[in-house]
Amino acid sequence: MYKSEFIEPKEDLTTDILNKNTLTYGEKTSYIGLKSTHVTLETKDGEKVYGSLKFKDPDEIPEPGKTKIAYVFVPQNKKYKDYEGSVIVDVEKQKPTLSGTSLKRIKYDQHKTKKDIPLEKYAAALIGEKMQAVSGTWMIEKEDEKLPLGDYQAVVKFIPDDTTHYTTAEIALTGQTFIELDTDIEDSAKVGDIIQLSADPKATNLQYKFYIEDSEGKQKIIQDFTSDSECKWVPEKEGTYTICVEAKDENGNTATASVKEITINKKEEEKPPVKDPESGDHGSDSGEPSKPGSSESGEPTTGNDQTTTEQKPDTNTNSNVDVGVKANQAATVNGIIYKVTKIENAKNAQVSITSLDKKKSSIVIPDYITINGVKCKVVTIKKKALYKGTKLKKLTIGKNVQTIEDNAFNGCKNLKSITIKSTVLKKVGKNAIKGIHKKAVIKVQKKQYKKYKKLFGKKSGFKKPMRLKK
Fold first, then answer.
1. Per-residue pLDDT reduced to its tens digit, 189-212
2. pTM score, two decimals?
3. Sheet strands (E) in 141-269
4. Could you give the CA distance from residue 52 to residue 63 in angstroms, rounded to a whole number?
5. Rounded-to-integer distance, Cα 110 and Cα 310, Å
6. Which of 201, 181, 175 is nearest to 105 (CA)?
7. From CA 20, how far away is CA 17, in angstroms rounded?
Protein backbone atom coordinates (compact mmCIF):
# COMPACT_ATOMS: atom_id res chain seq x y z
CA MET A 1 0.00 0.00 0.00
CA TYR A 2 1.13 3.50 -0.74
CA LYS A 3 -0.08 6.86 0.44
CA SER A 4 -1.90 9.08 -2.03
CA GLU A 5 -0.06 12.26 -2.86
CA PHE A 6 -1.42 15.78 -3.02
CA ILE A 7 -1.39 17.39 -6.41
CA GLU A 8 0.34 20.71 -6.65
CA PRO A 9 -0.93 22.16 -9.93
CA LYS A 10 1.39 24.40 -11.88
CA GLU A 11 -1.53 26.85 -12.05
CA ASP A 12 -5.10 26.73 -10.92
CA LEU A 13 -7.92 26.20 -13.34
CA THR A 14 -9.65 29.34 -14.61
CA THR A 15 -13.14 30.25 -15.72
CA ASP A 16 -12.20 28.78 -19.07
CA ILE A 17 -13.50 25.49 -17.70
CA LEU A 18 -16.99 27.00 -17.42
CA ASN A 19 -19.69 27.45 -20.02
CA LYS A 20 -20.38 30.92 -18.58
CA ASN A 21 -18.89 33.02 -15.83
CA THR A 22 -22.05 34.75 -14.52
CA LEU A 23 -25.05 33.58 -12.55
CA THR A 24 -28.29 35.21 -11.41
CA TYR A 25 -29.19 34.89 -7.75
CA GLY A 26 -31.46 31.90 -7.31
CA GLU A 27 -29.60 29.78 -9.87
CA LYS A 28 -27.66 26.73 -8.68
CA THR A 29 -23.92 26.42 -9.15
CA SER A 30 -24.54 23.66 -11.66
CA TYR A 31 -26.30 26.16 -13.95
CA ILE A 32 -22.90 27.57 -14.90
CA GLY A 33 -22.00 24.30 -16.58
CA LEU A 34 -18.61 22.76 -17.33
CA LYS A 35 -17.18 22.78 -20.83
CA SER A 36 -15.87 19.28 -20.20
CA THR A 37 -16.01 16.87 -17.30
CA HIS A 38 -12.62 15.36 -18.26
CA VAL A 39 -9.51 17.55 -18.14
CA THR A 40 -5.73 17.31 -17.76
CA LEU A 41 -4.04 19.06 -14.85
CA GLU A 42 -0.31 19.85 -15.03
CA THR A 43 1.68 19.59 -11.79
CA LYS A 44 4.55 21.83 -10.71
CA ASP A 45 6.89 18.97 -11.65
CA GLY A 46 5.55 19.10 -15.20
CA GLU A 47 3.60 15.87 -14.91
CA LYS A 48 0.29 15.83 -16.66
CA VAL A 49 -2.47 14.19 -14.67
CA TYR A 50 -5.69 13.13 -16.40
CA GLY A 51 -8.95 13.06 -14.45
CA SER A 52 -12.56 14.11 -14.13
CA LEU A 53 -13.99 17.46 -13.04
CA LYS A 54 -17.13 18.30 -11.06
CA PHE A 55 -18.60 21.00 -8.85
CA LYS A 56 -18.11 20.44 -5.14
CA ASP A 57 -21.71 21.53 -4.34
CA PRO A 58 -23.73 21.64 -7.57
CA ASP A 59 -26.94 22.57 -5.71
CA GLU A 60 -25.45 25.54 -3.90
CA ILE A 61 -27.12 28.92 -4.56
CA PRO A 62 -24.33 31.52 -4.49
CA GLU A 63 -24.81 34.96 -3.00
CA PRO A 64 -24.81 38.05 -5.26
CA GLY A 65 -21.41 39.62 -6.00
CA LYS A 66 -18.05 38.10 -6.88
CA THR A 67 -18.33 34.59 -5.49
CA LYS A 68 -15.98 31.61 -5.35
CA ILE A 69 -17.33 28.44 -6.93
CA ALA A 70 -15.59 25.33 -5.66
CA TYR A 71 -14.73 22.41 -7.96
CA VAL A 72 -13.17 18.97 -7.43
CA PHE A 73 -10.58 17.34 -9.71
CA VAL A 74 -10.57 13.52 -9.38
CA PRO A 75 -7.30 12.07 -10.83
CA GLN A 76 -7.55 8.85 -12.75
CA ASN A 77 -4.18 7.84 -11.25
CA LYS A 78 -5.03 6.80 -7.70
CA LYS A 79 -1.61 7.81 -6.41
CA TYR A 80 -2.98 11.32 -6.27
CA LYS A 81 -5.61 12.61 -3.94
CA ASP A 82 -8.59 14.56 -5.20
CA TYR A 83 -7.79 18.21 -5.69
CA GLU A 84 -10.16 21.01 -4.68
CA GLY A 85 -9.96 24.43 -6.28
CA SER A 86 -12.23 27.39 -7.03
CA VAL A 87 -13.02 29.93 -9.68
CA ILE A 88 -14.60 33.36 -9.21
CA VAL A 89 -17.86 34.18 -10.97
CA ASP A 90 -20.21 37.18 -10.94
CA VAL A 91 -23.62 36.55 -9.34
CA GLU A 92 -26.16 39.17 -10.30
CA LYS A 93 -29.26 40.15 -8.32
CA GLN A 94 -32.50 38.63 -9.57
CA LYS A 95 -35.30 40.76 -10.97
CA PRO A 96 -38.62 39.40 -9.60
CA THR A 97 -41.21 38.36 -12.13
CA LEU A 98 -44.47 40.34 -12.05
CA SER A 99 -46.28 38.23 -14.66
CA GLY A 100 -49.20 37.55 -12.32
CA THR A 101 -49.81 41.23 -11.62
CA SER A 102 -52.86 42.91 -13.13
CA LEU A 103 -54.99 46.04 -12.83
CA LYS A 104 -58.49 45.31 -11.57
CA ARG A 105 -61.40 46.84 -13.45
CA ILE A 106 -62.83 49.86 -11.69
CA LYS A 107 -66.03 51.83 -12.19
CA TYR A 108 -65.33 55.16 -13.85
CA ASP A 109 -65.12 58.18 -11.58
CA GLN A 110 -64.03 61.50 -13.01
CA HIS A 111 -62.27 62.36 -9.74
CA LYS A 112 -60.17 59.21 -9.41
CA THR A 113 -56.49 59.00 -10.32
CA LYS A 114 -54.08 56.15 -11.02
CA LYS A 115 -53.27 55.81 -7.34
CA ASP A 116 -56.88 54.61 -6.84
CA ILE A 117 -56.38 51.62 -9.13
CA PRO A 118 -56.79 48.32 -7.25
CA LEU A 119 -53.90 45.96 -8.02
CA GLU A 120 -53.84 42.19 -8.27
CA LYS A 121 -50.29 41.87 -6.86
CA TYR A 122 -47.85 39.08 -7.58
CA ALA A 123 -44.06 39.22 -7.30
CA ALA A 124 -42.00 36.04 -7.26
CA ALA A 125 -38.47 34.78 -7.84
CA LEU A 126 -37.14 31.45 -9.04
CA ILE A 127 -34.99 29.99 -6.25
CA GLY A 128 -33.51 26.74 -7.43
CA GLU A 129 -36.40 25.04 -9.12
CA LYS A 130 -39.23 26.63 -7.12
CA MET A 131 -40.99 29.98 -7.37
CA GLN A 132 -41.04 31.91 -4.11
CA ALA A 133 -43.04 35.02 -3.26
CA VAL A 134 -41.09 38.23 -2.79
CA SER A 135 -42.34 40.98 -0.48
CA GLY A 136 -41.98 44.63 -1.27
CA THR A 137 -43.62 47.97 -2.05
CA TRP A 138 -45.86 48.60 -5.06
CA MET A 139 -46.37 51.89 -6.83
CA ILE A 140 -47.92 53.14 -10.04
CA GLU A 141 -46.02 55.68 -12.09
CA LYS A 142 -47.73 59.07 -12.59
CA GLU A 143 -50.14 58.16 -9.82
CA ASP A 144 -51.72 61.62 -9.78
CA GLU A 145 -52.80 61.32 -13.41
CA LYS A 146 -56.60 61.20 -13.85
CA LEU A 147 -58.09 57.87 -14.88
CA PRO A 148 -59.66 58.06 -18.34
CA LEU A 149 -62.85 56.39 -19.45
CA GLY A 150 -62.37 52.89 -20.90
CA ASP A 151 -58.97 51.33 -21.61
CA TYR A 152 -55.75 52.91 -20.36
CA GLN A 153 -52.07 52.08 -19.83
CA ALA A 154 -50.17 52.15 -16.54
CA VAL A 155 -46.63 51.24 -15.48
CA VAL A 156 -46.46 49.36 -12.18
CA LYS A 157 -43.19 49.35 -10.23
CA PHE A 158 -42.18 46.85 -7.52
CA ILE A 159 -39.44 47.69 -5.00
CA PRO A 160 -38.37 44.56 -3.04
CA ASP A 161 -37.79 44.67 0.70
CA ASP A 162 -34.71 42.47 0.19
CA THR A 163 -32.49 44.63 -1.97
CA THR A 164 -29.46 42.37 -1.32
CA HIS A 165 -30.82 39.65 -3.56
CA TYR A 166 -33.40 41.40 -5.77
CA THR A 167 -33.64 44.45 -8.01
CA THR A 168 -36.57 46.77 -8.68
CA ALA A 169 -38.95 45.45 -11.34
CA GLU A 170 -41.64 47.11 -13.42
CA ILE A 171 -44.34 46.05 -15.85
CA ALA A 172 -46.59 47.91 -18.31
CA LEU A 173 -50.22 46.89 -17.96
CA THR A 174 -53.56 47.69 -19.56
CA GLY A 175 -56.45 48.60 -17.28
CA GLN A 176 -60.07 49.55 -17.78
CA THR A 177 -62.67 51.78 -16.21
CA PHE A 178 -66.25 50.74 -16.89
CA ILE A 179 -69.81 51.98 -16.70
CA GLU A 180 -72.99 50.11 -15.78
CA LEU A 181 -76.51 50.04 -17.17
CA ASP A 182 -79.53 49.60 -14.91
CA THR A 183 -83.10 48.86 -15.99
CA ASP A 184 -86.30 48.59 -14.00
CA ILE A 185 -87.15 45.19 -15.50
CA GLU A 186 -85.67 41.77 -14.80
CA ASP A 187 -85.59 40.00 -18.16
CA SER A 188 -88.87 40.63 -19.97
CA ALA A 189 -91.52 43.24 -20.71
CA LYS A 190 -94.41 43.83 -23.10
CA VAL A 191 -94.82 45.96 -26.17
CA GLY A 192 -95.81 49.44 -25.06
CA ASP A 193 -94.33 49.15 -21.56
CA ILE A 194 -92.24 52.08 -20.34
CA ILE A 195 -88.77 50.81 -19.45
CA GLN A 196 -86.53 53.10 -17.42
CA LEU A 197 -82.82 53.02 -18.37
CA SER A 198 -80.08 54.52 -16.23
CA ALA A 199 -76.30 54.72 -16.73
CA ASP A 200 -73.94 54.63 -13.79
CA PRO A 201 -71.95 56.70 -12.97
CA LYS A 202 -73.70 59.98 -13.62
CA ALA A 203 -70.61 62.03 -14.43
CA THR A 204 -70.75 65.68 -15.45
CA ASN A 205 -67.99 65.24 -18.04
CA LEU A 206 -69.65 62.34 -19.87
CA GLN A 207 -72.12 62.14 -22.75
CA TYR A 208 -74.44 59.12 -22.99
CA LYS A 209 -76.03 57.35 -25.93
CA PHE A 210 -78.70 54.66 -25.43
CA TYR A 211 -79.54 52.17 -28.14
CA ILE A 212 -80.96 48.68 -28.69
CA GLU A 213 -79.76 45.79 -30.82
CA ASP A 214 -82.10 43.08 -32.04
CA SER A 215 -81.34 39.38 -32.56
CA GLU A 216 -80.14 40.10 -36.10
CA GLY A 217 -77.63 42.69 -34.96
CA LYS A 218 -79.63 45.69 -36.18
CA GLN A 219 -79.24 48.75 -34.00
CA LYS A 220 -81.69 51.51 -33.21
CA ILE A 221 -80.83 54.64 -31.23
CA ILE A 222 -83.16 55.41 -28.34
CA GLN A 223 -81.36 58.57 -27.30
CA ASP A 224 -78.27 60.01 -28.99
CA PHE A 225 -75.34 61.51 -27.08
CA THR A 226 -76.50 63.94 -24.40
CA SER A 227 -75.47 64.72 -20.83
CA ASP A 228 -78.61 62.92 -19.61
CA SER A 229 -77.66 59.61 -17.99
CA GLU A 230 -81.27 58.38 -17.94
CA CYS A 231 -83.86 57.72 -20.61
CA LYS A 232 -86.99 55.68 -21.30
CA TRP A 233 -87.55 53.00 -23.91
CA VAL A 234 -91.00 51.99 -25.10
CA PRO A 235 -90.70 48.74 -27.13
CA GLU A 236 -92.66 48.83 -30.39
CA LYS A 237 -92.50 45.18 -31.38
CA GLU A 238 -91.85 41.73 -29.99
CA GLY A 239 -88.41 40.14 -30.00
CA THR A 240 -85.21 39.60 -28.07
CA TYR A 241 -83.06 42.67 -27.56
CA THR A 242 -79.80 43.82 -26.05
CA ILE A 243 -80.07 47.25 -24.44
CA CYS A 244 -76.84 49.26 -24.56
CA VAL A 245 -75.42 52.53 -23.33
CA GLU A 246 -72.24 54.11 -24.64
CA ALA A 247 -70.47 56.88 -22.75
CA LYS A 248 -67.72 59.15 -24.00
CA ASP A 249 -65.60 61.77 -22.28
CA GLU A 250 -64.22 65.09 -23.50
CA ASN A 251 -61.17 63.36 -25.01
CA GLY A 252 -63.20 60.89 -27.08
CA ASN A 253 -62.54 57.90 -24.81
CA THR A 254 -65.50 55.52 -24.71
CA ALA A 255 -66.98 52.70 -22.64
CA THR A 256 -70.05 50.56 -23.26
CA ALA A 257 -72.38 48.59 -21.00
CA SER A 258 -75.30 46.37 -21.93
CA VAL A 259 -78.14 44.25 -20.62
CA LYS A 260 -78.59 41.17 -22.80
CA GLU A 261 -81.45 38.84 -23.65
CA ILE A 262 -84.37 41.14 -22.85
CA THR A 263 -87.52 39.51 -24.18
CA ILE A 264 -90.34 41.76 -25.36
CA ASN A 265 -93.65 39.93 -25.48
CA LYS A 266 -96.88 40.71 -27.25
CA LYS A 267 -99.12 43.19 -25.50
CA GLU A 268 -102.17 41.60 -23.92
CA GLU A 269 -105.49 42.44 -25.47
CA GLU A 270 -107.18 45.26 -23.64
CA LYS A 271 -110.38 44.34 -21.86
CA PRO A 272 -113.31 46.78 -21.64
CA PRO A 273 -113.34 48.91 -18.50
CA VAL A 274 -115.08 47.34 -15.54
CA LYS A 275 -118.25 49.34 -14.81
CA ASP A 276 -120.30 49.58 -11.69
CA PRO A 277 -123.66 48.02 -12.65
CA GLU A 278 -125.40 49.96 -9.88
CA SER A 279 -124.18 53.39 -10.96
CA GLY A 280 -126.25 53.58 -14.12
CA ASP A 281 -125.00 54.94 -17.40
CA HIS A 282 -121.42 56.15 -16.98
CA GLY A 283 -120.83 57.05 -20.59
CA SER A 284 -121.13 60.60 -21.88
CA ASP A 285 -123.55 61.48 -24.63
CA SER A 286 -120.72 61.73 -27.10
CA GLY A 287 -119.10 58.47 -26.02
CA GLU A 288 -115.76 60.30 -25.55
CA PRO A 289 -113.59 59.80 -22.44
CA SER A 290 -112.98 62.73 -20.16
CA LYS A 291 -110.23 65.06 -21.25
CA PRO A 292 -106.89 65.44 -19.48
CA GLY A 293 -106.99 68.26 -16.97
CA SER A 294 -110.58 67.58 -15.85
CA SER A 295 -111.99 65.36 -13.14
CA GLU A 296 -114.62 62.67 -13.61
CA SER A 297 -117.30 65.19 -12.65
CA GLY A 298 -116.10 67.55 -15.34
CA GLU A 299 -114.43 69.94 -12.88
CA PRO A 300 -110.81 71.06 -13.53
CA THR A 301 -108.13 69.17 -11.58
CA THR A 302 -105.62 70.97 -9.42
CA GLY A 303 -102.75 68.48 -9.79
CA ASN A 304 -100.07 68.34 -12.46
CA ASP A 305 -100.81 64.74 -13.54
CA GLN A 306 -102.99 64.23 -16.58
CA THR A 307 -104.17 60.82 -15.37
CA THR A 308 -107.36 61.27 -13.35
CA THR A 309 -106.12 59.76 -10.05
CA GLU A 310 -106.36 60.67 -6.41
CA GLN A 311 -104.84 59.28 -3.24
CA LYS A 312 -108.22 59.26 -1.48
CA PRO A 313 -111.15 57.24 -2.86
CA ASP A 314 -113.43 59.15 -5.25
CA THR A 315 -116.93 59.39 -3.77
CA ASN A 316 -118.56 60.89 -6.91
CA THR A 317 -121.01 58.32 -8.23
CA ASN A 318 -122.73 60.65 -10.70
CA SER A 319 -119.88 60.93 -13.23
CA ASN A 320 -120.84 61.27 -16.87
CA VAL A 321 -117.72 59.43 -18.10
CA ASP A 322 -116.57 55.82 -18.12
CA VAL A 323 -115.19 54.51 -14.87
CA GLY A 324 -113.11 51.39 -14.23
CA VAL A 325 -109.60 50.17 -14.67
CA LYS A 326 -107.80 47.63 -16.84
CA ALA A 327 -105.19 45.05 -15.89
CA ASN A 328 -101.65 46.46 -16.29
CA GLN A 329 -103.02 49.98 -16.58
CA ALA A 330 -100.47 52.55 -15.40
CA ALA A 331 -101.19 55.74 -13.51
CA THR A 332 -99.04 58.46 -11.95
CA VAL A 333 -100.05 60.04 -8.65
CA ASN A 334 -97.85 62.57 -6.84
CA GLY A 335 -94.78 61.42 -8.75
CA ILE A 336 -95.37 57.71 -8.01
CA ILE A 337 -96.03 55.36 -10.94
CA TYR A 338 -98.54 52.58 -10.24
CA LYS A 339 -99.65 49.56 -12.24
CA VAL A 340 -102.96 47.73 -11.81
CA THR A 341 -102.23 44.10 -10.88
CA LYS A 342 -105.62 42.75 -9.83
CA ILE A 343 -109.24 43.78 -10.38
CA GLU A 344 -111.36 42.61 -7.45
CA ASN A 345 -114.70 44.01 -8.59
CA ALA A 346 -116.21 47.09 -10.17
CA LYS A 347 -115.19 49.30 -7.30
CA ASN A 348 -111.96 47.76 -6.01
CA ALA A 349 -108.56 46.77 -7.39
CA GLN A 350 -104.95 46.26 -6.34
CA VAL A 351 -101.87 48.12 -7.60
CA SER A 352 -98.11 47.84 -7.35
CA ILE A 353 -95.59 50.68 -7.33
CA THR A 354 -93.17 50.42 -10.27
CA SER A 355 -91.31 53.72 -9.83
CA LEU A 356 -90.90 56.39 -7.17
CA ASP A 357 -89.90 60.02 -7.60
CA LYS A 358 -86.08 60.32 -7.33
CA LYS A 359 -86.30 64.08 -6.77
CA LYS A 360 -88.12 63.85 -3.43
CA SER A 361 -86.42 63.71 -0.04
CA SER A 362 -89.56 62.45 1.72
CA ILE A 363 -92.06 59.94 0.30
CA VAL A 364 -95.32 58.60 1.73
CA ILE A 365 -96.67 55.43 0.15
CA PRO A 366 -100.45 55.64 0.61
CA ASP A 367 -102.85 52.92 1.71
CA TYR A 368 -105.07 53.47 -1.35
CA ILE A 369 -105.25 55.51 -4.53
CA THR A 370 -108.22 56.11 -6.81
CA ILE A 371 -108.05 55.53 -10.56
CA ASN A 372 -111.12 56.41 -12.62
CA GLY A 373 -113.42 55.97 -9.64
CA VAL A 374 -111.94 52.63 -8.60
CA LYS A 375 -110.42 52.33 -5.12
CA CYS A 376 -107.02 50.66 -5.51
CA LYS A 377 -105.17 49.08 -2.61
CA VAL A 378 -101.36 49.60 -2.72
CA VAL A 379 -99.91 46.13 -2.01
CA THR A 380 -96.48 45.83 -3.65
CA ILE A 381 -93.31 47.88 -4.11
CA LYS A 382 -91.66 46.45 -7.23
CA LYS A 383 -88.02 45.71 -7.98
CA LYS A 384 -85.77 48.78 -8.16
CA ALA A 385 -88.71 51.10 -7.55
CA LEU A 386 -86.25 53.66 -6.20
CA TYR A 387 -82.87 52.18 -7.10
CA LYS A 388 -80.09 54.58 -6.06
CA GLY A 389 -82.52 57.31 -5.07
CA THR A 390 -79.86 59.34 -3.33
CA LYS A 391 -82.11 62.29 -2.40
CA LEU A 392 -84.56 60.25 -0.32
CA LYS A 393 -84.15 60.72 3.45
CA LYS A 394 -87.53 59.73 4.91
CA LEU A 395 -89.97 56.99 3.83
CA THR A 396 -93.41 56.00 5.12
CA ILE A 397 -94.93 52.72 3.90
CA GLY A 398 -98.72 52.37 3.95
CA LYS A 399 -100.75 49.81 5.87
CA ASN A 400 -101.62 47.57 2.89
CA VAL A 401 -98.13 46.86 1.55
CA GLN A 402 -97.49 43.10 1.56
CA THR A 403 -94.31 42.83 -0.50
CA ILE A 404 -91.13 44.88 -0.91
CA GLU A 405 -89.29 43.31 -3.85
CA ASP A 406 -85.55 42.87 -4.57
CA ASN A 407 -83.44 46.04 -4.70
CA ALA A 408 -86.49 48.25 -4.16
CA PHE A 409 -84.47 50.86 -2.22
CA ASN A 410 -80.96 49.60 -2.95
CA GLY A 411 -78.45 52.46 -2.99
CA CYS A 412 -80.65 55.05 -1.27
CA LYS A 413 -77.61 56.08 0.75
CA ASN A 414 -79.28 59.00 2.57
CA LEU A 415 -82.43 57.11 3.59
CA LYS A 416 -82.24 57.31 7.39
CA SER A 417 -85.87 56.98 8.54
CA ILE A 418 -88.37 54.29 7.47
CA THR A 419 -91.81 53.98 9.07
CA ILE A 420 -93.79 50.84 8.25
CA LYS A 421 -97.50 51.14 9.04
CA SER A 422 -98.32 47.84 7.36
CA THR A 423 -99.17 44.86 9.56
CA VAL A 424 -99.51 42.52 6.58
CA LEU A 425 -95.95 42.65 5.22
CA LYS A 426 -95.01 39.12 4.12
CA LYS A 427 -91.82 39.51 2.11
CA VAL A 428 -88.80 41.79 1.94
CA GLY A 429 -86.69 40.94 -1.12
CA LYS A 430 -82.97 40.46 -1.56
CA ASN A 431 -80.97 43.68 -1.10
CA ALA A 432 -84.22 45.64 -0.74
CA ILE A 433 -82.55 48.10 1.66
CA LYS A 434 -78.90 47.46 0.84
CA GLY A 435 -76.80 50.61 0.86
CA ILE A 436 -79.27 52.84 2.74
CA HIS A 437 -77.84 55.05 5.50
CA LYS A 438 -75.70 52.96 7.86
CA LYS A 439 -77.53 54.41 10.89
CA ALA A 440 -81.03 54.04 9.45
CA VAL A 441 -83.91 53.43 11.86
CA ILE A 442 -86.86 51.27 10.74
CA LYS A 443 -89.99 51.86 12.85
CA VAL A 444 -92.53 49.01 12.91
CA GLN A 445 -95.73 48.16 14.76
CA LYS A 446 -95.02 46.70 18.21
CA LYS A 447 -96.96 43.48 17.53
CA GLN A 448 -95.03 42.89 14.30
CA TYR A 449 -91.54 43.46 15.73
CA LYS A 450 -90.43 39.79 15.99
CA LYS A 451 -91.88 38.86 12.60
CA TYR A 452 -90.40 41.87 10.83
CA LYS A 453 -87.02 41.37 12.46
CA LYS A 454 -86.81 38.10 10.52
CA LEU A 455 -87.98 39.75 7.29
CA PHE A 456 -85.28 42.42 7.61
CA GLY A 457 -82.40 39.96 7.88
CA LYS A 458 -78.96 40.10 6.24
CA LYS A 459 -80.47 39.03 2.92
CA SER A 460 -82.51 42.26 2.78
CA GLY A 461 -79.38 44.36 3.18
CA PHE A 462 -79.98 45.13 6.86
CA LYS A 463 -76.77 45.36 8.90
CA LYS A 464 -75.55 47.02 12.06
CA PRO A 465 -75.61 49.79 13.15
CA MET A 466 -79.05 49.95 11.43
CA ARG A 467 -81.90 49.54 13.97
CA LEU A 468 -85.38 48.05 13.96
CA LYS A 469 -87.51 50.04 16.40
CA LYS A 470 -90.93 49.30 17.92
1. 889 888 889 999 999 999 999 999
2. 0.56
3. 150-160, 169-178, 180-183, 188-190, 195-200, 207-214, 219-226, 230-233, 239-248, 254-265
4. 27
5. 43
6. 175
7. 9
